[in-house]
Amino acid sequence: MEQLLNHLRHLGFTELEAKVMVSLTQQGTQSGYEVAKRLGVSRSNVYATLQRLVSRGVIQLTPGEPARYTMMPIKEFTQMISGQMGESLTYLEQHMPSETHEQPSFFIVEGERKVIETLNRELDKASEEIVAGIWREEAKWSRQGLERAEQRGVRVLWSFEGDEDGKFSGMLPLTASQQGGRKFWLVVDRRWCIVGMRGDELPAQAIVTEHPLMVELLLQHFAQEIILFELENDLGAELIQRYGEGYEHILNKYMPSFVHKDID
């Protein structure tokens, strides 16, 4: 019964209207007094409700002493509601003001549960490509979502620290530092991205946006990872000899404080 009442409420009927309609359907034609007695509601409230339903064409009134009320056949009722909703939706499509195209916003998501929900919701919407960088500790958040995406034919490329099974295609080594927490980021279909951090004693926090600049920065970062991965595979010893471990000779030239903080 409660589920039936709930669906009637979703169609725009009040709690009492829904109960009156169900009562008339179950018991057949009744007077307002009989409906009020059966529902245990004041007669004034029931009569006002019956009048509204009559005006909407949902129930039929048979004049007399007392007046009698009958619920319209359920098939006719559903056809009427369906037609009314269809007309309203068509009107909205034709007459709603044009959408304003605002600059994409940045949203903060806090807490592991909310981050996971946000992340997996977008992964399930992915249709073309997912590019990501995740540490092994956080990979469990998105592992199933990424697997489902690959099964749908979505191209998945991600940097993944500490993979042991080599299960996914497109894996690349993650070179970011863990200092201050483990960073994670994902770009879905080159339109949506999430960037965040989490540590063993640091609550998960993330920025979510569809801003094209942030998407571009993350994809550029990933492209640099790919290039470095290929170069280090082919020319590793030569690169170390020429540029130092972790390219420290280059970084010392431009960002010495960065080298001392993150590499040494």
Automatic annotation (TrEMBL):
It comes from the Bacteria. Residues 8-74 form the Transcription regulator TrmB N-terminal domain. Pfam families: TrmB. SUPFAM superfamilies: Winged helix' DNA-binding domain (SSF46785). PANTHER family: HTH-TYPE TRANSCRIPTIONAL REGULATOR TRMBL2. This is Transcription regulator TrmB N-terminal domain-containing protein. It comes from Paenibacillus nuruki.
